[in-house]
UniProtKB/TrEMBL annotation:
Segments forming domain RCK N-terminal: 117-223
GO cellular component: a single term: plasma membrane
Membrane topology: Multi-pass membrane protein
Descriptive protein name: Uncharacterized protein
Domain Potassium channel residues, every copy: 13-89
InterPro entries, sorted: K_chnl_dom (IPR013099), NAD(P)-bd_dom_sf (IPR036291), RCK_N (IPR003148), Trk_Ktr_HKT_K-transport (IPR050721)
Top-level taxonomy: Archaea, Thermoproteota, Thermoprotei, Sulfolobales, Sulfolobaceae
UniProt entry tagged with the keyword Transmembrane helix: yes
Keywords: Membrane, Transmembrane, Transmembrane helix
A biological-process GO annotation: potassium ion transport
Subcellular location as annotated: Cell membrane
Transmembrane parts of this sequence: 6-29, 41-60, 66-89
Length: 255
C-alpha cells in the first residue's frame, strides 16, 4: 500500500474540513450578507481553499461576527488537519525510501558475502590468511572482538569487522551460511567452542577449520566435532613440531 491507514485517515479528515468550509461558507453566503461578495458554489470552494492554504488574497472576507467565527474555526481545524496529513504522508514517504534503501543494502550485502571466506578471531593464523587473501584480492571478512586490534588491522589495510563474537545475533550479520570456508582462530578455547556451537546452528553446511595452540585445547574442541557436519581441527604448533622431527629423523637415516 502506498499510504498507511493513518495517512488515509488524515487525508479523509482534511477532505472533511474542506467540505465543512465549502458548505459553511455557501450556507452563510446564501442567508444574509455575511461576506462582502455573493457566495455561490465556485466562490465557496475558492474561499475555502484560499483560507486553508493561508494565502488569503483578501478579495472575499467575512463581515459579520458569525462569519468571522466560522472562518476562525475553519482555519483552526484546517491547519490541524493539513499538518496531520502532511506529517503522516511525509512519514510514509520517508519510511518507503528507508525500506527501499534497506532492501538495496541487503541485496548488496548478500552479493558481497556470497562465497566469501570468513575469518573469526584475531589469532596469528587468521592474520596470515587475511594477508594472503588481501594480496590475492579474494573476498573475505575478518571478524575480531577487540577494538584496539580491529583498529590496527584496519590501518594495515585489512577488511575488518569489530563485533561481539559470542553473540549469535552479531555472528548472523556475517551470513556464515553463505561462506565457502570459516576459519576460527581464537586465543580462548572456551570462546572457540561457543562460536562453533553458534555456527553449528546457523551454518550447518559450512566448512569450518578451527585453529588451536595446545593439545589441551585440541582435546576440548574434539568433543564438539560430532555436532558440526564439516569441521577440521588444526594445531599448527604440533604439526610444525612433527614436521621438524620427521625431517630430523629423515636426515639421520640419510647419514
Amino acid at each position: 500500500m502506498l499510504l498507511s491507514n493513518r495517512s488515509i485517515a488524515a487525508l479523509g479528515l482534511l477532505l472533511a474540513v474542506v467540505i465543512f468550509g465549502v458548505l459553511g461558507s455557501y450556507i452563510l453566503g446564501q442567508f444574509g450578507h455575511n461576506f462582502n461578495q455573493k457566495m455561490d458554489l465556485v466562490n465557496s470552494i475558492y474561499f475555502t481553499i484560499i483560507t486553508l492554504s493561508t494565502v488569503g488574497y483578501g478579495d472575499i472576507v467575512p463581515i459579520t461576527p458569525i462569519a468571522k467565527l466560522f472562518v476562525v474555526i475553519l482555519i483552526v481545524f484546517g491547519m490541524g488537519a493539513f499538518l496531520t496529513a502532511l506529517t503522516s504522508i511525509s512519514g510514509d514517504i520517508a519510511s518507503r525510501r528507508i525500506l527501499d534503501f534497506s532492501t538495496k543494502l541487503t541485496s548488496i550485502e548478500e552479493e558481497f558475502t556470497k562465497e566469501q571466506i570468513l575469518l573469526i578471531g584475531s589469532g596469528y593464523v587468521n592474520t596470515a590468511i587475511a594477508n594472503e587473501l588481501k594480496n590475492n584480492k579474494t573476498k573475505y571478512i575478518f571478524a575480531v572482538s577487540d577494538s584496539v586490534i580491529a583498529d590496527k588491522l584496519q590501518r594495515d589495510g585489512f577488511k575488518v569487522v569489530q563485533m561481539d563474537l559470542l553473540s549469535e545475533e552479531e555472528i548472523k550479520k556475517l551470513h556464515p551460511d553463505r561462506a565457502k570456508l570459516i576459519v576460527i582462530d581464537m586465543n580462548n578455547p572456551v570462546d572457540a567452542v561457543y562460536v562453533i556451537l553458534i555456527l553449528g546452528d546457523i551454518a550447518k553446511d559450512a566448512k569450518m577449520v578451527v585453529i588451536v595452540n595446545s593439545d589441551d585445547a585440541e582435546r576440548r574442541l574434539s568433543s564438539v566435532k560430532k555436532m558440526v557436519k564439516d569441521i577440521s581441527i588444526i594445531n599448527p604448533q604440533k604439526e610444525i613440531a612433527l614436521e621438524l622431527l620427521s625431517n630430523i629423523n629423515l636426515n639421520k637415516r640419510n647419514e
